Amino acid sequence: MAKLSDPITILKGIGPAKAKQFANLNIVTLRDLICHFPRAYEDRTRVGRIDDLELDTNGSFRATVIHTGKSQHVRKGLDIVRVTVSDGYRRLPLIFFNQNYSADVLKYGETFVFYGMLRQDRGGQCMINPIYEQENSVPVQTRRILPVYPLTAGLTNNAMAKAILQAMAICDAPAEILPPEVRKTYGIMDASRAYAAIHAPTSWEEVEQAKRRLVFEEFFVFSAGLSLMRAARAEAQAIVDQARRASNEVAEELKQLRKQLKDTADAQGC
Q: Under a CB-based contact definition with an 8 Å cutoff, are residues 101 and 122 in contact?
């Protein structure tokens, strides 16, 4: 089992170069990665038919590959793969720019779930560079509520999501810091469930509960910090007051000593 303090380079697919990209987001350890929260979510749970797609709007559908053309080299820096899919009711052309591997992955007769924007061009409706996953694969970019993460140059949302899920699979979530009685009183989910739900929610209700937990945790830590600061300030003030009393006592003793010395000198006629 990995530790939260382990570097992200222990994850598959993250070498020194990729680690530098993560470091631009202050992500160095597995803890940093797991605590890198989404900025938004996309609902990709609804998988319909091609006819359900709306023009110029992102949507998901399930279809089978019925034709995959070979990669065509148009010019330097531009290769095109054309694929045709069918859901049994309607066909839809898919166009992939500079994704030659799609010609090998999208094999005839295999079924995938696609996500993208339906477009209209001179030849009719099509979809350009859609995201796709095999229908029986683990949902990563389709068939789920997809977290959308803060990113930096060179890092895709897919790369971030895969890294986070990989990290969560090999190490525990950050330790629980909320007392059981506090969680029970305020109906707050526990830490492990909250981190799982924030990165891989199964429902919008889970998203809201996880957000509530993490916001509550920040408020709790902030409040506890203020309490500690007040206690420390009170303790420091008590020390200052004690030192002031001691100083006053010493000053009084010195005053009495000087008076005694003066009285003794006067008595001796000095």
A: no
Q: Which pLDDT tens digits describe the chain residue by residue (270 residues)?
A: 899 999 999 999 999 999 999 999 999 999 999 999 999 999 999 999 999 999 999 999 999 999 998 889 999 999 999 999 999 999 999 999 999 999 999 999 999 999 999 999 888 999 999 999 999 998 888 999 999 999 999 999 999 999 999 999 999 999 998 889 989 999 999 999 999 999 999 999 999 999 999 888 888 777 665 555 555 565 656 665 675 676 666 567 667 767 776 767 667 665
Q: At 224, which amino acid appears? A: A
Instruction: Tell me the pairing of strands 58-68 and 47-48.
Output: parallel
Q: Where are the beta strands (DSSP E) in 31-167?
A: 40-43, 47-48, 58-68, 72-75, 78-86, 91-97, 111-121, 124-128, 131-134, 145-148
Largest CA distance in the chain: 126
Amino acid at 116: G
User: What φ, ψ does residue 91 adopt, rounded to 5°?
Assistant: -100, 155
Which residues share a beta bridge with 132?
A: 114
Assign 138 to helix, strand or coil.
Answer: coil
CATH number of 47-134: 2.40.50.140
From residue 265, give the alpha-carbon distance in Å to each of 134, 240, 260, 269: 106, 37, 9, 6
Q: Are 27 and 8 in contact, with CB atoms under 8 Å apart?
A: yes
Distance from C-alpha of 35 to C-alpha of 48, rounded to nearest angstrom: 34
3-state percent breakdown (helix, strand, coil) of the chain, nearest 5: 45, 25, 35
CATH for the stretch 8-42+147-170: 1.10.150
The answer to whether the beta carbons of residues 119 and 126 sit under 8 Å apart is yes
